[in-house]
Amino acid sequence: MNIRRFLPLVPLLTLLTACGEDVSTGEAVAGGIGIWAIGSILALIIIVLAVLDLIKKPYPLEKKLIWGAIIFFVPFLGALLYFVIGRNKESVF
């Protein structure tokens, strides 16, 4: 199963987990923590997939270090940028 084809659905699935429940004032905090937990877990999965893909690719060491630093210092956005513009393109960095 190729998990990469499901990556565009991650934001939609995160939003759908917050829909459809009527929460009272006291439960709103707990519901928000659940959404943050789900979003954090999904972000961690995307970051780990980006790092594993970066390690697998036969890129030069300099390119791997640059992308690794981008993923490390800008975690979620860096991983998304790697998947959008960094994979399978020799001209980026």
Concise synopsis of the structure shown:
The protein is mostly helical. The protein has 4 helices and no strands.
Describe it for me?
The protein has 93 residues and is an all-alpha fold. The protein has a domain at 45-92. 66% of the residues lie in helices and 0% in strands. The protein is built from 4 helices and no strands. It has helices at 10-16, 28-56, 61-73, 75-86. It is a multi-pass membrane protein. This is Cardiolipin synthase N-terminal domain-containing protein. It is found in: Cell membrane.
Secondary structure blueprint with pairings:
Blueprint: H1 10-16, H2 28-56, H3 61-73, H4 75-86
Helix pairs in contact: 2-3, 2-4, 3-4
Q: How big is the Rg?
A: 17 Å
Largest β-sheet summary: none
Shape: globular
Which stretches are low in confidence, meaning pLDDT under 50 for 5 or more residues running? none
Distance between the termini: 30 Å
Q: Quickly count the helices.
A: 4
Percentage of residues in helical conformation: 55-70%
Q: Please count the beta strands (DSSP E, at least 2 residues each).
A: 0
- Could you tell me the mean pLDDT? 76
Q: Output the structural class.
A: mainly alpha
Element order, helices and strands? HHHH
Strand content: under 5%
